[in-house]
Amino acid sequence: MRARKRFGQHFLERAWVDKLVALVAPQPDDRFLEIGPGAGALTLPLAASGAHIRAIEIDRDLAADLVAVAPPTVTVVTGDMLDLAPDALFGDRAEPPVRVVGNLPYNVSSPILFRLLALWRETRRLRDATLMLQREVAIRVAAGPGSGDYGPLSILTALHADVDTLLQLPPGAFRPPPKVHSSVIRLRFRPPTVDVGDYARFERLVRTLFQQRRKTSANALKPLLGSLFPAASSSEPPALEPSASPGAPDADGLLRAAGLDPRQRPETLGLGDLARLAQQLAGPGR
């Protein structure tokens, strides 16, 4: 097959397909959501187990080819995983939670990961996800506090799922070979283990802190406080980088109330630390 660069296509060799299928271990009563099935290298072995598969393919030509060879247990949906509504992704609401599989295009793997986390949060219709990613992205997903790879993707994933790294693949596992190595990870979705309060505010807190990950947590927090608690009135034009206004809570005080040292860098804060900080940020009267 001819790989289309605009879709980030790299097709997995059969020997590695067999390894991936063994890791997934499909069962006849499983329901799969497959992202980017291509010509069905993974779809058809999974379907051979008796499992039902909903395959999301953005390439219309590949989708049509897959329809021609797929068994009745495979439903092919032509479209973009990032744009399709939950009903198009999941089908019948009476079906059990689905298992996600996919060889994710490297150029959109992070947006797809964030979409899966949002789908879990909004629908609770995901069971697990076995995904092939660029190795650097897989490292970011599984990173912990103190690592240079730790950031919003790590934190928001840890809030919603447990992460396991299952397999490492060289460029030669694909045709055409990419210029990077790949990893297979599994996300096992579960309810959050900490209370972060309002999710949108928690996500905004995390992203703001890590935009300035090398600063102290107190200094990195001030722009968020300035935007959440602007001065009631001011004749001065707004600053390009808002700092805490007179009506905003004190950054040092908030961090200490959460049991944190204001001098810590954001990259040292664990999920529990950030949850406590979010709770303080949403305290009485705020």
- Return residue spans where pLDDT drops below 50 for at least 5 consecutive residues: 3-8, 232-242
Count of discrete structural domains: 2
CATH class of the largest domain: Alpha Beta
> How do the strands line up in the largest sheet?
4-3-2-5-6-9-7
Derived structural class: alpha/beta
Number of helices: 11
Largest sheet: 7 strands, mixed
Roughly how many Å is the radius of gyration? 22 Å
Q: Quick one: how many beta strands?
A: 9
Distance between the termini: 58 Å
Write down the overall mean pLDDT. 88
**CATH superfamily annotation of the largest domain:** Vaccinia Virus protein VP39
Indicate the overall shape.
Answer: elongated
Write structural notes for this entry.
- It is a single chain.
- This protein has about 290 residues and is of the alpha/beta class.
- The protein has 2 domains: about 5-190, Rossmann fold, CATH 3.40.50; about 200-230 and about 240-280, Helicase, Ruva Protein, domain 3 (Orthogonal Bundle).
- Helix content is about 35%, strand content about 20%.
- The strands form 2 sheets. It has a 7-stranded mixed beta sheet with strand order 4-3-2-5-6-9-7, with helices on both faces. The protein has a two-stranded antiparallel ribbon with strand order 1-8.
- Helix 5 packs parallel to helix 7 (about 150-160) and helix 8 packs across helix 9.
- The radius of gyration is 22 Å and the shape is elongated.
